[in-house]
Specification:
single chain; mainly alpha; about 5% strand; two-stranded antiparallel sheet
């Protein structure tokens, strides 16, 4: 009885193996008969690296370069900013910031709990603009690791030089990679007009104290935020 049951089980296993082998051979034959897809080759892009190197040298490092050092060495002087919004004149620029920054006119934040439609529109616009700036700096941080690590050990001057160097290098890379499949042609115009450089006398101690107080003026921040809310609402 046991010998007959074992022989029957062996026969079933043999039939299953034969069926599986036949099915496998049929699939292999079908694959051989099907036409193979052509292998996609990698596209070759002409980089013109030699020409890019020449343009880079002419733009920044030649004796008569297109962008002389005076474009970058500003001696720590911020540009003069004068603008008028909603009928009020302001003499300082401002940074788009989030809620952790103080309420100073040099940091423009969104409304924490907007109560009106004007405030909601302004807060949405301020958040969108701020995220665009954060995205741009995120690209720099991803490309240059020195911007992503802590920098407390550096001086302010060194941090400024590092930031300028990363921005310049990023622009050089973008200029090198832009339109790689096109011929880059540049028209040169001879001109003896140099950049306008204004050297201002350093402010006195009293002037510095006054500027510091103006940059920390909370009522001015409230007025500027109100004017910007009205301006954004009028142009929405």
């Amino acid at each position: 009885m046991s010998s007959s049951s074992s022989s029957s089980s062996d026969g079933i296993e043999g039939d299953l193996i034969d069926a599986f082998q036949a099915e496998y051979e049929e699939e292999m034959l079908n694959e051989e008969e099907e036409p193979r897809r052509p292998r996609r080759r990698r596209e070759f892009i002409r980089r013109d690296r030699l020409g890019a190197s020449d343009r880079l040298f002419e733009d920044y490092f030649a004796d008569d370069c297109n962008y002389p050092p005076s474009f970058f060495r500003r001696r720590g002087e911020a540009p003069v900013v004068n603008f008028t919004v909603n009928g009020h004149e302001y003499n300082y620029g401002y940074y788009l910031a989030d809620g952790i920054y103080p309420s100073w006119p040099v940091f423009m934040k969104g409304v924490t709990l907007p109560q009106s439609e004007k405030q909601r529109v302004f807060t949405a616009a301020q958040s969108a603009w701020r995220k665009d700036v954060e995205c741009a700096f995120g690209v720099l941080k991803a490309r240059f690791n020195i911007l992503a690590v802590p920098g407390r050990s550096y001086s302010r001057r060194t941090l400024g030089l590092i930031m300028r160097a990363c921005v310049i290098l990023h622009n050089m890379i973008i200029d090198d990679e832009r339109g790689t499949n096109l011929e880059n042609t540049y028209e040169t115009v001879e001109s003896n007009v140099g950049p306008a450089i204004h050297n201002h006398a350093p402010p006195s101690l009293a002037a510095r104290i006054q500027m510091d107080n103006e940059m920390r003026d909370s009522p001015m921040y409230t007025q500027l935020q109100h004017d910007l809310i009205e301006h954004v609402w009028a142009n929405a």
